[in-house]
Amino acid sequence: MPDQGFSGGCLCGAVRFSSSRPPLIGRACWCRVCQYLASGNASISIIAESVAISVTGELAAYESRADSGNVIRRSFCPTCGTPLFCEAVGESEYKVVRVGALDDTELGRPQSIIWARSAPSWGWCDASLPAATTHVNALESVREKAT
């Protein structure tokens, strides 16, 4: 991962965000909920420290129970619907940032895959990446990368 911060926003430009710190890790998620959000594909996201992210513009949010059992808050632009962030309710230390919303999508190269068992038969998973069959907590991903 790069050693600089990052920025991004939504399709219509109503929401912008930036981080003073670099992403901690990038990953692809094949859980069924992410497939809904990514038009049948894996969602590609980076994990970042919440305290370093600043947002301008209004966000809307939707909460639901993920395949992991956690309640997840997904934030998006209320005007154009661009998915921007998600976080486990009660775990505010880290935020998941959708790579499609980054100004530089190269920052989002996945370093691991989660929920690989839920990928459809035609889904592509990079065999060189570590793949978990189910959920791996974002905090665990960051800790594993640090060791």
TrEMBL record:
The keyword Iron does not apply. Transmembrane segments: none annotated. GO terms for molecular function: carbon-sulfur lyase activity; metal ion binding. The keyword NADP does not apply. Pfam families: GFA (PF04828). PANTHER family: CENP-V_GFA DOMAIN-CONTAINING PROTEIN-RELATED, GFA DOMAIN-CONTAINING PROTEIN. Belongs to the Gfa family. This is GFA family protein. It comes from Microvirga brassicacearum. The lineage of its organism: Bacteria, Pseudomonadati, Pseudomonadota, Alphaproteobacteria, Hyphomicrobiales.
